[in-house]
Amino acid sequence: MKDKWGRTIDYLRLSLTDRCNLRCRYCMPEALASVGHEAVLRYEEMQLICRAALALGINRFKITGGEPLVRKGAVPFMQALKAMEGVRSVTLTTNGLLLSDALPDLVRMGIDGINISLDSLDAVQYAELTGGGQLSVVLAALEAAAASGVNVKVNAVLLAETKDQILPLAALARKFPVDVRFIELMPIGYGTTLKGLTEEEALLILRRSYPDLAATDERRGNGPASYYRSQFLQGRIGFIAANTHGFCSSCNRLRLTSTGFLKPCLCYDDGVDLRAIVRSGKGADEIDQDLQRVMAEAIYEKPAKHCFAEQNRISEHKTMNQIGG
Ligand code: SAM
Ligand code: SF4
To answer: How many independent structural domains does the chain possess?
Structure first.
């Protein structure tokens, strides 16, 4: 359905858990207290919400977290979601550490895309940034995923301290048929504690090795990335530049936290508690009607744009692992 600004909302980021097996410094650097199991939506509850979302025209789902693959049953849940009538795509974003084991089942279910988060190809720096992550494990998963024929994207947050990783990361798109996307650091949660780089700064560096980089107007996924092509690369270079190239006018997304809180915009803590509805004790039809009604209201009232440039207006105080990125 459309919001009051005329944008079509058809994409839901669904967080399975706030837990993670890494501690990325801009996301959840400390062992933050996780929400209790009771607070987290059960898979059947998430399916009720997805069914209501489908009825409203939301038919593309991104499975996120925390690290979604640390939750038991994540792959069967994705399989069941993919099999629901009307679902157009189910994609996953992961840090890649548990991906190799899950990959055969993901390929079998026909996953529509896998995004692997990877900010540095220097093993020491990667471990330092992620609180102990093992780069070789992620690279093995990336190689296997690329070889499997699945649509793979690498997502790297643009940090001042990983400036010299921009070219090595981009070279992944030369070696493998994968898109490499650079994400401007967003001032949410611990994102305010590090210094980021802009798309322009990264492009200057990239153009030294890829002088033919040319913008394309291809749409290659669910969202806001803009893409560049080079004859030297198999995949594209993408940017998700929320700070310097606002894309709110074409925003198509909602977010659901693992505790069932539906967020219309990353920047604000406004939203609706869908868990209360799915646990209301009403019959399935009534729950479906209630979900559709409050979700439709939340969609209609989705804010026109984020407020990253005015940090005193950011009312969201959750960390990214709680929101789902
Ligand atoms: N654990 C999974 C992963 O890392 O892909 C899924 C969840 S993670 C929160 C989703 C994405 O959000 C990752 O690509 C991560 O780099 C990104 N992210 C986290 N904090 C961010 C921030 N402050 N600014 C920009 N991207 C951020
Ligand atoms: Fe975990 Fe992903 Fe956050 Fe890193 S970015 S701490 S992998 S949820």
So the answer is: 1
